[in-house]
Amino acid sequence: QVRLVESGGGLVQPGGSLRLSCACPASGPIFIIYHMGWYRQAPGKQRELVARISNDRSTNYADSVKGRFTISRDNTKNAVYLQMNSLRPEDTAVYYCNAYRSPMDDYWGQGTQVTVSS
């Protein structure tokens, strides 16, 4: 069982920055084999992929965040991060961390709220 704990959300003005963290405290050495991702869900909308980093550190991003967000992972700390710059009101959502290895090995965090507003 993989437990994911997100942190770093909050209220920020347009143009500002936030850094989200996702820790996997009990995963131990198996963390390195998981593909990690950040998803978000705005009110009334479906959950969507924001960014993903594979176990080989390859990354992909939603078109809406390319050039503004950066995903990274630290396998020595069993953690994944999302650096969000130039935030826009449309980035407002609950952000979820995901760890995936197979359909039967797919875990989600509890979510952290990001609100971009002046």
Descriptive report:
The protein is 0% helix and 50% strand. The protein has 118 residues and is an all-beta fold. The strands form two sheets. Strands 2, 4, 5, 6, 9, 10 and 11 form a seven-stranded mixed sheet that branches. A four-stranded antiparallel sheet has the order 1-3-8-7, with no helix packed on it. The protein is globular and about 40 Å long.
Secondary structure layout:
Blueprint: E1 5-7, E2 10-12, E3 18-23, E4 35-41, E5 48-53, E6 59-61, E7 69-74, E8 79-84, E9 93-102, E10 105-108, E11 112-116
Parallel strand pairs: 2-11
Antiparallel strand pairs: 1-3, 3-8, 4-5, 4-9, 5-6, 7-8, 9-10, 9-11
Helix content: under 10%
The 3D shape can be described as globular
Mean pLDDT: 94
What amount of the residues lies in strands?
Answer: over 45%
- The whole-angstrom Rg is 14 Å
> Could you tell me how far the N terminus lies from the C terminus, measured between alpha carbons in angstroms?
40 Å
How many helices? 0
Largest sheet: 7 strands, mixed
Topology order in helix (H) and strand (E) letters = EEEEEEEEEEE
The tally of strands reads 11
Q: Which runs of at least 5 residues are low in confidence (pLDDT < 50)? A: none
**Structural class computed from helices and strand pairing:** mainly beta
